[in-house]
Amino acid sequence: MSSTPSLAYVIAGSEATGGAGIQADLKTFQELGTYGVGTLTCIVSFDPKHDWGHRFVPVDPQVIADQFEAATSTHALDVVKIGMLGTPATIDVVARSLESQPWRHVVLDPVLICKGQEPGAALDTDTALRERVLPLATVVTPNLFEAKTLAGMDDITSLEELVEAARRIHARLGDGRGPRYVVAKGGVELSGPDAVDVLFDGEDVTVYAAPKVGEERVSGAGCTFAAAITAELAKGADVHDAVRVAKDMVTQGIEARVAARTPFDTVWQGAYVA
Ligand code: PXL
User: Fold this and answer.
1) Which of 122, 137, 219, 273 fits a disulfide with 266 by CB distance 3.0 to 4.6 angstroms?
2) Distance, CA 2 to ligand 1 centroid (Å)?
3) How far is the CA of 50 from the centre of ligand 1 (A)?
């Protein structure tokens, strides 16, 4: 007897420690009861001898196209998460692949830089992401830095400004080319006792708040958050409910974070209890 689990697809990079990237995505998919399918865009290996800096290797664009063909020929995929892409050439092949078929949801985690990378390291990638992939997204999940960058704001220091950023990102792309939903994440960086996220759907603002778990950033939180939204959407949830589950899973995963020798701990998806 064959079975038909909901299928959740991710196009993202490998982060070799298991804390972030496609490793975190696939664990999240599994934890939420979906069948994970993955296409690799790049390989990141932190360098313990050089302050855990990022050693980054892009996957050949043709190999990305081949993986996409294998995945989409094998399964009827209609919900996809986009994680780290890394180069303009990668962004181009992923955008062309996405354009080759319809999607119910494209969840974009607009990874501009990851923890440990210097801001500014990826400006050409940022531009390509904004021009080629953001218009294909239905849901985008920027953190504070990404929200600031995408909204063109100097700073975000309050809930009101976080909402303003979500509105601007939505309006900037409000030419019918998506994203219909913007989830701007305040995280530990936005001051206050709670970790606050806001969802703007073009009409209403929904605020999701949970007491902060410490003041340190935890690796894999952004990946897990967007992956959990993707899994829930794959199972048929609406976006508001999907964000609620994602928020709960990340909060629990940070409470049960995995101690590591890196300067940051990582999220433990296995701790999640619905
Ligand atoms: O956390 C963002 C992220 C996403 N994807 C990959 C990464 C990182 C950060 O290290 O390496 C592959």
Assistant:
1) 219
2) 34
3) 17
